[in-house]
Amino acid sequence: MPAVKNQEPGGRKPALMGLGLIFLLLLFVLAPSHAAAQDYDYEINAYAVYFDVIAPENVEETIEIDITSYTNLSQYVIYTDYPVEDPRAVLEMGSSTEPINVTVREVLGGTNAIYMNFPLLRPGESAKIRLTFTTRGMITESDGKQQFTYYVKFSQPVGLFHVQLVVPKGYAVLSPIIPSPDKVESSTSRLLLEWTRQNVRAGEEFYFIVGFSGEIIPPKQPSSLIYVGLFLAGLIVGGGGVYGYVLYRERKRSEEKAHLRTDEEKILAILREGSVLQSELAEKLGVSKAKVSIILREMEEKGLITRTREGRTYRVFLRE
Questions:
Q1: What is the pLDDT at residue 220?
Q2: Is 5 part of a structural domain of the chain?
Q3: Which parts pass through the membrane (predicted)?
């Protein structure tokens, strides 16, 4: 019997159909994330902020942004509620470093806009922007101690967010630190605090409040006998240690709430006389704008106040 010519094997069509379905499924899964990425002109792979306390009135701030452009990009803008002095910036791309033209303009509500113009980034190209400037007003005095407050709300997703605060010799950090730092390093010349967050979503907020005063006392290295004693004590009171830790966490939370409660009462007293701009509250309370933002957010969540957008700031009302 002659062989049948030009006949496809019986199993090939189902196999091809299966591959086609898998391909369509992959497109369906990957398309949303790709479309979401295209909602922005660039992707922020990493965003880092470094604060170096030079003096009670001066802080050197450095911002590093690692981005990948989705379009032709030649400008990046950062907004801050604090003064910007001596700004300087560079663009790192591969092994080359290019200077960036920096312009600072005050916009509505007392906010400063930092415009950075740099050589064109084409779609798919990645670079790091490094901006450094000196600012004032981030350290305020409250209840006889100095406080450093930082607040940021992300307008788009960030892969890795990192904050570092360096406090020089001559200051001691006071408890509580809100929130607890992920890393603490101390030496005879400085104290370093770090916070890190991964996969930050658009609209997510981050803040920290650090109180400090006095002089930094470097910790003494404990002897090996202390470690032995701690080990034996841990075996004896292991269960009690866990219970003590729980009590410590509860006490710390109550301290954090009490820390904000006094300022809340002051704000409520001000609002009983009528609505007020959020930027004016910072002046009335004698605290930083970042701290006011944190307190108002807490009060809004409790249903004590409402806020309506007015320019680049908010008008705050006492909730009826």
A1: 47
A2: no
A3: 225-248
